[in-house]
Amino acid sequence: MSVCWSILVTSRGQCLWRNLQSLGLQDWYLEPENSLLIKTIQALAFVPPDDVIEAFQQLMDSLDADTDETLSDFLAYFESTCTWLGIVQRGRRRRPKFDVAMWNVYNRVGDNLPRTNNSVEGWHRAFDKRMSVTHPTLGRLVSKLRKEQASTELMNEQLAMGNLETFPQTTHRAKEDEITFWHNLLMLVTLN
Question: What is the top-level taxon of the source organism (predicted)?
Fold first, then answer.
């Protein structure tokens, strides 16, 4: 099971941003080198899962004393709340609330799988509109689900015959291409 990248970027990103705000670091974040540091922490999602802890530690070791002091509470949130990486106690890292494999998308990018659940959310939104009522009766819900099933089966048959092709939006396609490029470059670097 993998928590999708959108959760990492948006939900985790929002969590990180809210934490920065609560610590009064909004102005600090506006400096390009500082925002890059926070984005680098978010980019841990693209590091091979077995290397995330080491990459995080290397990032922490690279901080100068002032930045380390400025970010001490933020880094404690990221690491020690047991949410993302887990706290180190008695020389061992405790299990985080969300295992690295759950939020890491490195393998999903390499396998050309979606990093988000946007398609699921899009289907749910469209199905919700087709229901046209907030609280349908059981009979109406079953009827709509049957129609949805028939429509999905027809679409699958059309796809299998090559009669139906879906394309992501241009902006999404460009992002996908860029992420795939960087992933492949990282693979080349790690193999050499």
Answer: Eukaryota
Going by the DSSP 8-state scheme, the letter that residue 8 receives in this structure is I
C-alpha to C-alpha distance for 100 and 154, rounded to whole angstroms = 38
- Neighbouring C-beta atoms of residue 53, cutoff 10 Å: 17
SS3 89: strand
Q: What is the rounded CA–CA span in Å between residue 49 and residue 80?
A: 19
pTM for the whole thing?
0.57
Is residue 85 within 8 A of residue 96, CB to CB? The reply is: yes
What is the tens place of the pLDDT at every residue in 70-121?
988 888 877 765 456 766 667 777 777 777 777 778 877 777 777 666 777 8
93 and 154: one domain? no
CB atoms within 10 A of CB 162: 7
Number of structural domains the chain divides into: 2
> Using alpha carbons only, what angle is made at residue 121 by residues 118 and 124, rounded to the nearest 5 degrees?
150
124-144 residue pLDDT tens: 888 888 888 888 899 999 999
- Copy the structure tokens of residue 107: 């393998």
Q: b/e map of 119-142 (b: 16 or more CB within 10 Å)? A: eeeeeeeeeeeeeeeeeeeeeeee
